[in-house]
Every structure is written in C-alpha cells, then in structure tokens.
Please model this.
Amino acid sequence: MIQAVIFDLDGLLVETETICYQILKEILARFGRPFALEEYTRSFSGKPETVNAAHLVEAYKLPFPAEEALERILRREEELHAEGVPLKAGAGELLSYLRQRGYGTAVASSSTRDRALNLLDRHGVTEYFHQFVFAGEVEQGKPAPDVFLKACEKLGRAPGDCLVLEDSGAGIQAAHAAGIPVICVPDLKTPERRFLDMTAAVCPSLWEVIPFLEERSGRGYYRPCKEYDECNRLIADYFESGQYEACFAGHLALAREGYPLAECQVGYFYYDGLGVEKDLGLAFEWTKRAAGHGDRDGQYNLACFYEEGTGTAPDPEQARRWYALAAGQGHDLALAKCRELGISVTFEEKKG
Model:
C-alpha cells in the first residue's frame, strides 16, 4: 500500500527546464553559437547546473572556466525565477489530494536547499511537504538510489510503501535501484524505453497520478459499498447473459431501498433502454438521486447530463459543480474534465 509520495523538483514539480534551456541559449548566443532545443534535451535536460556548466564550456569551447559558466547560469536563473516560474500542470491539485488523503510527502532533488525552497515558497506549496532531501545530504546523486532512500528514511517509510514521481531517465533509474515504484511524468524529453520499462506507469501530467493512487488504494472506478456485491451478482447472473429485464428489476429493487450504486445503475438502464423502455427523464432523475447520495459515478454522469442537456435543460454551472464533486472523490474522468474546463477541485477528507 502506497503511504508516501516523493517528488523530483525540476521539470516534474516546477517548470524550470524551459528556463534552463533559455539561459544556456542566451549564453551561447553571445558567442554566435546556435543552440537547438533538441541539443538541450539530448545532452543537458535533467542534469544539475554544475554538470551542465562544465559540459557547456567543454562542448562549445567557451573562453571561460566552468566555474564562471555556473555563476552566469545561477545569476540569470535567479533573475528569471524572480519573474515567476509556473508549477507543472496538476501540481496544486495533486498536492491538495495527497494532503486530504493523508499521504506522506517529500521533495528529493539534486538542487540546493535555498534554491528549491525559494521556488516552492513562491507558489505557497512548501507546507505541503513533510520532508526534503537536497544536494549535499547524500554521497551520490541520481542515478544512484541514495537521494530516494534518504527520503524514505526521513519519512519513516519502507521503500516499497512509497511512490516516486520523476521526469528523467536518471531519476527513474535511481528510484528503481532503491526498490521504490516510480511514475514517469515526461517533461521536454521522454526517457528512453529502457527507463520507461522500469516504471509503474507513465502519466502525461501530474493530474493523472490521482486516479492511479485511487486505484492502488482500492478506491477504483466503483467503490465497495453495501450493495456492491449484490450489484456485481446481478451483472454476472443476468447482464452478461443478456437477461437485461431481470438485471434491471434487481437493480431497481435495490435502488428503491436507497442504495446509491444501484440508483446510478438504474439511470444507466433508462439511458440505454436495456431491460426497460428508454427514458432520458427517468435516467436523469435516478442519476440525480445517486449523485445526491454521494455516488461519484452518478455525480460525473449527472454533470454530463447537465452539460449536454440530457433529460433536463442544459445548465453549465450545475455541470461544473457536479464535475468538481466527482473529481473531489477521485473520479478519473471527472478529474480530466476539470482539468479541461479549469475547474478548481477540493478533495474530500480521508475518513478514519
């Protein structure tokens, strides 16, 4: 069971890779040297400033030492950071979700402490993390596992009970070597297949980490509830063999007793006209009951009904409201919809 999530910083949590590319490009432009994004992603992306400074001087035969290159990089980086560095898409929502669900959280980065905390403080997210591991706290950097093992130690969790979020091949390799499940969220450069094969999942953004955790915690598409087993039995005994009328009747009996999952399923039957005459008005009413009783699938479906005007008049505000409520329970499709529409999501508190 995943109990804690460990974040990389640059390119994963904060949009710093594009800034790093801009800085190196500016330095080389002063000497009339072109610098393509492809070259940056191939040779510089995901590496510490010290490594990039040395490589830049050597590869482009610059007329000053690596130490001066590093000073120029850090000075310009500070200027650009002061102008604002955005969080990666879904970062705020994921951090809010992790807090509400009671996960431990840490940042494990090769960055310096002052630089990293400055980036996090500017966005007001430092308080979302319980622990931090920075450059100088471990003997070896990524791809060695040291930084992530140190984070596990600080969190008081076994490696197998943690999850690492990384964008780089070196970071993925480090997590894998530490025995920690890792999700890749690619940035400017998607890691090679040999690294992706080490991951538990590849997510296009941090938004998609939420449904991954919901599934792993047993809070999948349908949640266990009082009528869960009975609904599953009805599906197995009747629906899968095409006995839709019997399946509908069984669900209707449960729904009339006020069971939310059954109410939602009855809405499906009326919507599709399976085992009962198609009736979008009744589909809407039963779905509304399920949503009102807290069924997150019913909440998502009700939002769709309001958005599309199915069985009711279109109502964009009600649609947004119910998308947000379903997303707050970790519904993956609702989360995607909230991301698309720019809807703020508040995640429900962990019970118990």
